[in-house]
Protein backbone atom coordinates (compact mmCIF):
# COMPACT_ATOMS: atom_id res chain seq x y z
CA UNK A 1 0.00 0.00 0.00
CA UNK A 2 1.20 3.45 -0.80
CA UNK A 3 0.46 6.42 1.38
CA UNK A 4 1.11 9.78 -0.13
CA UNK A 5 3.38 12.11 1.83
CA UNK A 6 0.56 14.58 1.90
CA UNK A 7 -1.71 12.10 3.68
CA UNK A 8 1.02 11.23 6.18
CA UNK A 9 1.86 14.87 6.75
CA UNK A 10 -1.76 15.88 7.29
CA UNK A 11 -2.29 12.90 9.61
CA UNK A 12 0.70 13.96 11.72
CA UNK A 13 -0.52 17.51 11.73
CA UNK A 14 -3.99 16.54 12.97
CA UNK A 15 -2.49 14.17 15.55
CA UNK A 16 -0.16 16.82 16.92
CA UNK A 17 -2.87 19.46 17.13
CA UNK A 18 -5.00 16.97 19.11
CA UNK A 19 -2.01 16.39 21.38
CA UNK A 20 -1.54 20.14 21.84
CA UNK A 21 -5.23 20.60 22.63
CA UNK A 22 -5.10 17.75 25.16
CA UNK A 23 -2.21 19.45 26.95
CA UNK A 24 -4.07 22.70 27.63
CA UNK A 25 -7.74 21.77 27.46
CA UNK A 26 -10.41 24.26 28.38
CA UNK A 27 -12.10 23.25 31.62
CA UNK A 28 -14.89 24.64 33.78
CA UNK A 29 -13.42 26.05 36.98
CA UNK A 30 -15.40 26.96 40.07
CA UNK A 31 -14.48 30.57 40.78
CA UNK A 32 -15.57 32.86 43.61
CA UNK A 33 -14.47 36.46 44.03
CA UNK A 34 -15.26 38.05 47.39
CA UNK A 35 -14.84 41.83 47.19
CA UNK A 36 -14.74 44.31 50.03
CA UNK A 37 -18.50 44.85 50.21
CA UNK A 38 -19.99 42.17 48.00
CA UNK A 39 -19.47 39.00 46.04
CA UNK A 40 -18.14 40.03 42.63
CA UNK A 41 -18.48 36.62 40.98
CA UNK A 42 -19.49 33.12 41.98
CA UNK A 43 -19.95 30.30 39.52
CA UNK A 44 -18.34 28.09 36.93
CA UNK A 45 -16.19 29.71 34.29
CA UNK A 46 -14.70 27.95 31.28
CA UNK A 47 -11.01 28.69 30.97
CA UNK A 48 -7.65 27.48 29.68
CA UNK A 49 -4.13 28.83 29.99
CA UNK A 50 -3.70 31.91 27.80
CA UNK A 51 -2.25 35.40 27.68
CA UNK A 52 -3.65 37.83 30.22
CA UNK A 53 -3.60 41.63 29.90
CA UNK A 54 -3.98 44.14 32.73
CA UNK A 55 -3.81 47.97 32.57
CA UNK A 56 -0.82 48.14 34.96
CA UNK A 57 0.97 44.93 34.01
CA UNK A 58 0.61 44.55 30.23
CA UNK A 59 0.23 41.25 28.37
CA UNK A 60 1.89 38.06 29.56
CA UNK A 61 1.33 34.33 29.25
CA UNK A 62 -0.74 32.93 32.13
CA UNK A 63 -0.77 29.18 31.55
CA UNK A 64 1.03 27.54 34.44
CA UNK A 65 4.39 27.64 32.68
CA UNK A 66 5.16 30.97 34.38
CA UNK A 67 8.44 30.72 36.27
CA UNK A 68 8.56 27.07 35.12
CA UNK A 69 6.00 26.17 37.80
CA UNK A 70 4.62 23.27 35.70
CA UNK A 71 5.84 21.24 32.76
CA UNK A 72 2.56 21.35 30.81
CA UNK A 73 0.36 24.41 30.21
CA UNK A 74 -3.14 24.51 31.67
CA UNK A 75 -5.93 26.56 33.19
CA UNK A 76 -4.83 28.81 36.04
CA UNK A 77 -6.41 30.89 38.80
CA UNK A 78 -5.68 34.12 36.96
CA UNK A 79 -6.82 32.84 33.54
CA UNK A 80 -10.16 32.03 35.23
CA UNK A 81 -10.27 35.54 36.73
CA UNK A 82 -9.54 37.12 33.34
CA UNK A 83 -12.20 35.02 31.58
CA UNK A 84 -14.83 35.79 34.22
CA UNK A 85 -13.99 39.51 34.00
CA UNK A 86 -14.36 39.51 30.23
CA UNK A 87 -17.60 37.55 30.18
CA UNK A 88 -19.28 39.21 33.16
CA UNK A 89 -17.93 42.68 32.40
CA UNK A 90 -16.10 43.58 35.57
CA UNK A 91 -12.61 45.05 35.64
CA UNK A 92 -9.45 43.88 37.35
CA UNK A 93 -5.87 45.07 37.51
CA UNK A 94 -2.50 43.73 38.48
CA UNK A 95 1.12 44.69 38.28
CA UNK A 96 3.54 42.24 36.66
CA UNK A 97 6.74 41.20 38.39
CA UNK A 98 9.26 39.81 35.87
CA UNK A 99 11.34 38.10 38.59
CA UNK A 100 8.31 36.34 39.97
CA UNK A 101 7.04 35.95 36.34
CA UNK A 102 3.51 36.56 37.54
CA UNK A 103 0.84 39.18 38.10
CA UNK A 104 0.19 40.61 41.51
CA UNK A 105 -3.58 41.31 41.57
CA UNK A 106 -4.23 44.82 42.89
CA UNK A 107 -7.91 45.39 42.12
CA UNK A 108 -11.04 43.46 41.16
CA UNK A 109 -14.20 45.47 40.52
CA UNK A 110 -14.13 48.42 42.91
CA UNK A 111 -12.17 46.55 45.61
CA UNK A 112 -8.72 48.11 45.27
CA UNK A 113 -5.80 47.14 47.47
CA UNK A 114 -4.64 49.61 50.13
CA UNK A 115 -1.42 49.88 52.15
CA UNK A 116 -2.78 47.20 54.50
CA UNK A 117 -5.40 45.27 52.50
CA UNK A 118 -4.41 42.91 49.70
CA UNK A 119 -6.06 40.38 47.43
CA UNK A 120 -5.32 36.76 48.32
CA UNK A 121 -5.75 33.67 46.14
CA UNK A 122 -6.89 30.37 47.60
CA UNK A 123 -7.56 26.98 46.05
CA UNK A 124 -9.77 24.67 48.09
CA UNK A 125 -9.55 27.12 51.01
CA UNK A 126 -5.75 27.12 51.16
CA UNK A 127 -3.54 30.02 50.10
CA UNK A 128 -1.76 29.12 46.87
CA UNK A 129 1.98 28.67 47.37
CA UNK A 130 2.66 30.36 44.02
CA UNK A 131 1.20 33.20 41.93
CA UNK A 132 -2.10 33.01 40.07
CA UNK A 133 -0.57 32.30 36.64
CA UNK A 134 1.65 29.60 38.10
CA UNK A 135 -1.14 27.87 40.00
CA UNK A 136 -2.85 25.42 37.66
CA UNK A 137 -6.36 24.30 38.54
CA UNK A 138 -8.61 21.30 37.89
CA UNK A 139 -12.38 21.38 37.43
CA UNK A 140 -12.91 19.96 40.90
CA UNK A 141 -11.00 22.85 42.50
CA UNK A 142 -12.63 25.82 44.20
CA UNK A 143 -10.74 28.97 43.33
CA UNK A 144 -11.23 31.98 45.61
CA UNK A 145 -9.96 35.53 45.20
CA UNK A 146 -10.55 37.30 48.51
CA UNK A 147 -10.09 40.98 49.33
CA UNK A 148 -8.14 41.72 52.53
CA UNK A 149 -7.51 37.99 52.84
CA UNK A 150 -4.42 38.32 55.02
CA UNK A 151 -6.11 40.08 57.93
CA UNK A 152 -9.18 37.87 58.18
CA UNK A 153 -9.64 35.25 60.89
CA UNK A 154 -11.95 32.82 59.05
CA UNK A 155 -12.82 31.82 55.51
CA UNK A 156 -16.47 30.93 55.90
CA UNK A 157 -17.95 27.85 54.30
CA UNK A 158 -21.70 27.35 54.38
CA UNK A 159 -23.56 24.09 53.92
CA UNK A 160 -27.20 23.16 54.24
CA UNK A 161 -30.18 21.44 52.65
CA UNK A 162 -31.16 21.98 49.02
CA UNK A 163 -34.82 22.16 49.92
CA UNK A 164 -36.76 23.45 52.93
CA UNK A 165 -40.39 23.56 53.98
CA UNK A 166 -42.16 26.66 55.28
CA UNK A 167 -42.79 26.34 59.02
CA UNK A 168 -40.08 23.72 59.47
CA UNK A 169 -36.73 25.25 60.53
CA UNK A 170 -33.87 24.23 58.23
CA UNK A 171 -30.40 23.72 59.67
CA UNK A 172 -27.37 25.35 58.05
CA UNK A 173 -23.78 25.02 59.21
CA UNK A 174 -20.96 27.56 59.09
CA UNK A 175 -17.38 26.33 59.31
CA UNK A 176 -13.99 27.77 58.54
CA UNK A 177 -13.10 26.14 55.21
CA UNK A 178 -9.40 26.31 56.08
CA UNK A 179 -9.55 24.02 59.08
CA UNK A 180 -13.12 22.68 59.23
CA UNK A 181 -13.80 24.26 62.66
CA UNK A 182 -17.32 25.58 63.37
CA UNK A 183 -17.67 29.37 63.35
CA UNK A 184 -19.95 31.04 65.90
CA UNK A 185 -21.41 34.52 65.44
CA UNK A 186 -21.74 34.37 61.65
CA UNK A 187 -24.86 35.86 60.12
CA UNK A 188 -26.99 33.77 57.73
CA UNK A 189 -30.30 35.21 56.56
CA UNK A 190 -30.38 37.51 59.66
CA UNK A 191 -29.82 34.61 62.05
CA UNK A 192 -26.59 34.03 63.96
CA UNK A 193 -24.64 30.80 64.13
CA UNK A 194 -24.12 29.19 67.53
CA UNK A 195 -21.02 27.68 69.10
CA UNK A 196 -21.36 24.56 66.94
CA UNK A 197 -21.62 26.70 63.80
CA UNK A 198 -25.23 25.79 63.16
CA UNK A 199 -28.09 28.15 62.49
CA UNK A 200 -31.79 27.32 62.18
CA UNK A 201 -33.69 29.24 59.56
CA UNK A 202 -37.44 29.54 59.42
CA UNK A 203 -38.38 30.53 55.90
CA UNK A 204 -41.54 32.58 55.57
CA UNK A 205 -41.94 32.55 51.80
CA UNK A 206 -41.62 30.07 48.96
CA UNK A 207 -39.10 30.20 46.16
CA UNK A 208 -35.38 29.77 45.56
CA UNK A 209 -33.26 31.56 48.16
CA UNK A 210 -29.53 32.10 47.96
CA UNK A 211 -27.87 32.23 51.37
CA UNK A 212 -24.38 33.27 52.35
CA UNK A 213 -22.70 33.48 55.74
CA UNK A 214 -20.87 36.63 56.75
CA UNK A 215 -18.95 37.90 59.75
CA UNK A 216 -16.96 41.12 60.25
CA UNK A 217 -13.62 39.35 60.75
CA UNK A 218 -14.13 36.75 58.03
CA UNK A 219 -14.27 36.27 54.28
CA UNK A 220 -17.94 35.69 53.41
CA UNK A 221 -18.98 32.19 52.42
CA UNK A 222 -20.01 30.42 49.27
CA UNK A 223 -23.70 30.69 48.38
CA UNK A 224 -26.09 27.84 49.17
CA UNK A 225 -29.24 27.75 47.07
CA UNK A 226 -32.27 26.37 48.81
CA UNK A 227 -35.69 25.81 47.30
CA UNK A 228 -38.41 26.62 49.83
CA UNK A 229 -41.73 24.86 49.26
C1 LIG B 1 1.38 36.36 24.46
O1 LIG B 1 2.11 37.47 24.95
C2 LIG B 1 3.47 37.48 24.56
C3 LIG B 1 4.08 38.71 25.21
O2 LIG B 1 4.22 38.53 26.58
C4 LIG B 1 3.58 37.53 23.05
O3 LIG B 1 4.95 37.45 22.68
C5 LIG B 1 2.81 36.37 22.44
O4 LIG B 1 2.79 36.51 21.05
C6 LIG B 1 1.38 36.36 22.95
N1 LIG B 1 0.68 35.16 22.44
C7 LIG B 1 -0.52 35.23 21.90
C8 LIG B 1 -1.08 33.92 21.46
O5 LIG B 1 -1.15 36.26 21.77
Please list the strands of the largest sheet in the order they lie side by side.
2-1-10-8-9
Oligomer: single chain
β-strand amount: 35-45%
Number of continuous helical runs: 2
H/E topology pattern: HEEEEHEEEEEEEEEEEEEEEE
Please, could you describe this protein's structure?
A hairpin with a 3-residue loop joins strand 3 and strand 4. This protein is 14% helix and 40% strand. The strands form 6 sheets. It has a 5-stranded mixed β-sheet with strand order 2-1-10-8-9, covered by helices on one side. Strands 16-13-11-19 form a 4-stranded mixed β-sheet, with no helix packed on it. The protein contains 2 helices and 20 strands. It has helices spanning 5-23, 77-88, and strands at residues 27-34, 39-47, 50-54, 58-62, 92-97, 102-108, 111-112, 119-123, 126-127, 142-147, 154-159, 163-164, 170-176, 187-188, 191-192, 198-201, 207-211, 213-214, 218-219, 224-228. The chain folds into 2 domains: 24-151, Ferric Hydroxamate Uptake Protein, Chain A, domain 1, CATH 2.170.130.30; 154-228, Immunoglobulin-like. With 229 residues, the protein is mainly β. The radius of gyration is 21 Å and the shape is elongated. The structure holds 2-acetamido-2-deoxy-beta-D-glucopyranose (NAG). Residues 51, 59-61 line the site of 2-acetamido-2-deoxy-beta-D-glucopyranose.
Amino acid sequence: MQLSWLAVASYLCVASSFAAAAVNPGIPVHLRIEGERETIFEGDIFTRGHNVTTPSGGTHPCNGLNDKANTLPGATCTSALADAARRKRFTFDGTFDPTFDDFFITAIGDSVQTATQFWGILVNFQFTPVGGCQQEVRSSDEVLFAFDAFSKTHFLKLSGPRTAIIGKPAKFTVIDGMNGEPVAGASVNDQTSGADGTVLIDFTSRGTKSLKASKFDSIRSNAVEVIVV
